[in-house]
Write a structure and sequence with these properties.
The protein has 440 residues and is of the alpha/beta class. It contains 13 helices and 21 strands. The protein folds into two domains: 159 residues, Lyase, Ornithine Decarboxylase, Chain A, domain 1 (Beta Barrel), CATH 2.40.37.10; 184 residues, Alpha-Beta Barrel (TIM Barrel), CATH 3.20.20. Pyridoxal-5'-phosphate binds next to helix 10. Pathway: Amino-acid biosynthesis; L-lysine biosynthesis via DAP pathway; L-lysine from DL-2,6-diaminopimelate: step 1/1.
Length: 440
């Protein structure tokens, strides 16, 4: 059995996280419940930062907050001196409400609205990662109209497909994101922005995929982007000071996943950037990275309560839990795999193989296809590991299920950071039908 971060099993045979008993957490807050191991999040952040410090290179580590966005996690990210990626006005608003340092906020997205861009200018955020020509036009207009400066990075697709699941690969040329590096689009984008009075081109950005285990793709991307910036220096006598290599560092969901330590990916990137820069006579740029999953993924655990069971004789045995695709759509969406444990029977022998089903009205609502567990009974607490990234942030109210609560645990203490939705919350935006309005 693999435990993550501060997880242990206590004398009662219960799973603990951050020094708190998860069975007690389930009783106190109800289930489904997201539990975040904040010490582990801090350790992950520091490991990335230390690697850059040791290699003596300018850097920013930006938490890609679409993985899990909330006021409280933004406040912890600020404590850890992280920068922050946001991809919508909603995430930006949350960051501002959290008091996150605005100059360290980076705004992403392939279709930012005018209102979102205007908000970015008015809040004077750190930079906008520009995705397309329409956005360049909008940024020029807005910056001239507001007479405000803005740092920009140009997002490019370097034509490298990292070996991962197709649905979550964005580095290929056939991608909805960014300027193509190979067919002249990136050059055109640079030419259109480099001399602009208010837009300051900081450099290039790429994000080649997610859940990547191999360093080769990162090395190839680093090389291509540095070479392009060196080429522009020759051509325009303009040195881009920043290279942003995105996120996508793989984590261990199950024993099938064998990630390198995060520092290993970063070391290889830095080495490549240094070598290629030296060869091209280019000043080593600052390196920015954007880990999402690898910062927050294994810090999150979901607790569910086991309810009904069903046996399909000779085929499989189902156990159903009180959540499902409404709080974690990744298994249904990508066939994502997870590991689990019965938190109240953490030392018991794993004598059964179950399919863990959710409670949503979809046959595909299965959380774990094959879970090795002790014999399960109604009322047992199932802990599903590594749900910290793209779990709560992709949660929905499908079937009008209320979204779970989220608690942070650290040093033996626990605190509620997102309340469980109530039935009242579910109808909060509903407006009663008025037959008078459409009566003829
Ligand atoms: C999603 C995303 C990330 C984070 O990806 P992870 O796989 O969670 O590390 C980083 N940068 C960009 C641009 C993204 O879209």
């Amino acid at each position: 059995m693999h435990l993550y971060g501060t997880q242990t099993i206590n004398a009662k045979g219960h799973l603990t996280i951050g020094g708190t008993d998860t069975v007690e957490l389930a009783t106190e807050y109800g289930t489904p419940l997201f539990v975040y191991d904040i010490q582990l999040f801090r350790e992950r952040a520091r490991a990335f930062q230390q690697t850059f410090e040791q290699q003596k290179i300018g850097y920013q580590v930006a938490y890609a907050s679409k993985a899990f966005s909330s006021i409280a996690i933004y406040q912890v990210a600020a404590e850890e001196n992280l920068s922050l990626d946001v991809v919508s006005g909603g995430e930006l608003y949350t960051a501002i409400k959290a008091g996150f340092p605005k100059e360290k906020i980076h705004f992403h997205g392939n279709n930012k609205s005018e209102a979102e861009l205007r908000m970015a200018f008015e809040e004077e955020i750190g930079c906008i990662v520009v995705d397309n020509f329409y956005e360049i036009d909008q940024l020029k207009k807005l910056s001239e109209q507001l007479e405000r400066p803005m740092n920009i990075l140009l997002r490019v697709t370097p034509g490298i497909s990292a070996h991962t699941h197709d649905y979550i690969t964005t580095g290929q040329e056939d991608s909805k994101f960014g300027f193509d590096l190979n067919n002249g689009q990136a050059d055109k984008a640079f030419a259109e922005t480099v001399h602009h009075a208010f837009l300051k081109v900081m450099g290039l950005h790429c994000h080649i995929g997610s859940q990547i285990f191999d360093t080769a793709a990162f090395r190839m991307a680093s090389e291509k982007l540095v070479k392009k910036m060196a080429e522009w220096k020759e051509q325009y006598e303009y040195t881009c000071p920043v290279l942003n290599l995105g996120g996508g560092f793989g984590i261990r969901y199950t024993e099938e996943d064998q990630p390198l330590a995060p520092s290993e990916y970063v070391k290889e990137m830095i080495q490549t950037v240094k070598t290629v820069s030296a060869d091209a006579g280019f000043d080593v740029p600052e390196i920015w990275i954007e880990p999402g999953r690898s910062l927050i993924g294994d810090a999150g655990t979901t607790l569910y309560t086991v309810g009904s069971t069903k046996e399909v004789p000779g085929t499989r045995q189902y156990i159903a839990v009180d959540g499902g695709m409404s709080d974690n759509i990744r298994p249904a969406l990508y066939g994502a795999k997870y590991s689990s444990l019965l938190a109240n029977k953490a030392n018991a022998e794993l004598t059964k193989q179950y399919t863990v089903a959710g409670k949503c009205c979809e046959s595909g609502d299965k959380l774990i296809e094959q879970a090795q567990l002790p014999a399960a009974e109604p009322g047992d607490i199932l802990s599903m590991f590594c749900t910290g990234a793209y779990g709560y942030s992709m949660a929905s109210n499908y079937n009008r299920l209320a979204r779970p609560a989220v608690v942070f645990v650290e040093n033996g203490e626990h605190q509620l950071v997102i309340k469980r939705e109530s039935y009242e919350d579910l109808i909060k935006q509903d407006v009663s039908y008025n037959p008078q309005v459409t009566r003829r």
